């Protein structure tokens, strides 16, 4: 029997019938891809459109991981802002990363339009500032983007205007980004899967890769067959444990959690977020929320660093929601779910050729709606002989997490606990 999608509001409102067969037996391909999320699907689509024979293996369903369970927010820039990038990487690399981040946003829009994907796109995203002392820097940053990067879609919001837009006075100002926005992430992933299959990519669900064997040709071994290819792409993000030690040391899975209310008129006149914008805030452990197409409030908050979810997901996320919207204490919650994303030490994506014949793109650190489809595209470009964009990402620092695979989780817990404390003081 075909496994269902992981339960979520997205799974309940996407195409439950979309399905691809599991791999049966051995096969050969030019390129074999591990992972059916945005990265893998985008790589498969762009390779297949170029006439490359490509096989994609997904352990569960396409979009089953972070690609189908995230907050749906399309942000501007990298996970680190331009000030951070310039200070640590230099002006030229920082500008190159800005340009590619803008290309990544444009790619999402192009994919939606070119393939007729009903992704429920809605423009507008507010970055809300949760500490008064951060206001001068954040206000100046909006001005700097316009002055130094020619980006004029960002506008500073004073507290009164911000409160009217988002329905809470919990913040001290914010930045409205009209060049960003939000979408239904699982519908977007399913649209990419349909487009990749139509272009000729062979997609297989329910096919977990047990081992990547290296030799004359890399081979992906599964329970029911093998794929031998000239090139393997590792696009499993937070779900690559046990497949490649080099990637596993540098890309760490963490869990994040989301809920949706019952429909409350969010995103419409008279309701919360009447302009329809998404919101994320300046916490290191970010709060993020947005209206859905049917007027629910979708809210994400709280992370864990264990392999198990909290026993009561509804209560776990609700307590974060009520810190921002205490008036929703009696509002019914329709769905609550968790998902695994992946972070790197520097919060910069890990995109590169890991070794001859093996490419990887993962570790988007919460910026995957924009960067993951782009990561798949630049892998496809590199495989076809144009590594320029890949080389820019490959030059980024990518240290291993301290302590190796055994101690990296305790080290992360200590670090994230410290940052969570800083968020509160």
Structural commentary:
Helices cover about 35% and strands about 25% of the residues. By secondary structure, the chain is α/β, with parallel strands linked by helices. The protein has 2 domains: about 10-70 and about 185-250 and about 345-415, 3-Layer(bba) Sandwich (FAD/NAD(P)-binding domain); about 120-180 and about 255-340, D-Amino Acid Oxidase, subunit A, domain 2 (D-Amino Acid Oxidase, Chain A, domain 2, 2-Layer Sandwich). α4 crosses α10. The chain is globular. It starts with 8 loop residues before the first helix and ends with a helix. The model has no long low-confidence stretch (mean pLDDT about 95).
How is this structure best summarized?
Keywords: Oxidoreductase. The protein is an alpha/beta fold and 425 residues long.
Ends distance? 50 Å
Average pLDDT works out at: 93
- The CATH superfamily name of the largest domain is FAD/NAD(P)-binding domain
Number of helices: 12
Give the overall shape, derived from the CA principal axes: globular
Number of strands: 17
- Spell out the helices and strands N to C: HEHEEHHEHEHEHEEEEHEEEEHEEEHHH
What is the name of the CATH architecture of the largest domain?
3-Layer(bba) Sandwich
**Main β-sheet: number of strands, strand sense, barrel status?**
9 strands, mixed
CATH class of the largest domain: Alpha Beta
Rg of Cα set: 21 Å
In the CATH scheme, what's the topology name of the largest domain? FAD/NAD(P)-binding domain
Give the helix proportion (percent range): 25-40%
User: Could you say which structural class the secondary elements and strand pairing correspond to?
Assistant: alpha/beta
GO molecular function: oxidoreductase activity
InterPro entries: FAD-dep_OxRdtase, FAD/NAD-bd_sf
Keywords: Oxidoreductase
Enzyme class: oxidoreductase
């Amino acid at each position: 029997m075909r496994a269902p999608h992981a339960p979520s509001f997205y799974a309940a409102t996407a195409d439950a019938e979309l399905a691809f067969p599991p791999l049966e037996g051995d096969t050969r391909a030019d390129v074999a891809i591990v992972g059916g999320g945005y990265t893998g699907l985008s790589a498969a689509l762009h390779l297949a459109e170029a006439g490359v024979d490509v096989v994609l293996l997904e352990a569960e369903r396409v979009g089953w991981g972070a690609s189908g369970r995230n907050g749906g927010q399309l942000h501007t820039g990298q996970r680190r802002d331009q000030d951070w990038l310039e200070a640590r990487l230099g002006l030229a690399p920082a500008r190159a990363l800005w340009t590619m981040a803008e290309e990544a946003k444009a790619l999402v829009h192009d994919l939606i339009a070119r393939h007729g994907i009903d992704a429920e796109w809605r423009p507008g995203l507010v970055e809300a500032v949760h500490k008064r002392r951060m206001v001068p820097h954040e206000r100046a940053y909006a001005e700097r983007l316009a002055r130094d990067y020619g980006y004029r879609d960002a506008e500073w919001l004073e507290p009164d205007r911000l409160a009217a837009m988002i329905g809470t006075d919990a913040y001290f100002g914010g930045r409205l980004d009209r060049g960003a926005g939000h979408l239904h992430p699982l519908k977007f992933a399913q649209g990419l899967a349909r487009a990749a299959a139509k272009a000729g990519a062979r997609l297989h669900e329910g096919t977990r890769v047990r081992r990547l064997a290296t030799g004359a040709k890399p081979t992906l071994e599964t329970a029911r067959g093998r794929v031998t290819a000239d090139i393997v792409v590792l696009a499993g993000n937070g779900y690559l444990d046990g497949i490649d030690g080099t990637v596993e040391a540098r890309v760490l899975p963490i869990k994040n959690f989301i809920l949706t209310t019952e429909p409350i008129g969010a995103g419409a006149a008279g309701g919360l977020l009447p302009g329809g914008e998404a919101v994320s805030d300046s916490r290191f452990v970010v709060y993020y929320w947005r209206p859905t197409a049917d007027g629910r409030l979708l809210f994400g908050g709280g992370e864990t660093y264990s392999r198990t979810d909290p026993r009561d997901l509804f209560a776990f996320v609700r307590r974060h929601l009520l810190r921002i919207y205490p008036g929703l204490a009696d509002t019914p919650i329709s769905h609550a779910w968790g998902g695994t994303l992946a972070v790197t030490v520097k919060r910069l994506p890990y995109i590169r050729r890991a070794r001859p014949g093996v490419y990887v793109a993962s570790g988007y650190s919460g910026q995957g709606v924009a960067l993951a489809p782009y990561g798949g595209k630049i892998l496809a470009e590199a495989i076809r002989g144009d590594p320029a964009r890949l080389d820019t990402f490959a030059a980024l620092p990518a240290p291993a997490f301290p302590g190796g695979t055994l101690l990296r989780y305790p080290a992360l817990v200590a670090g994230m606990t410290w940052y969570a404390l800083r968020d509160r003081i």
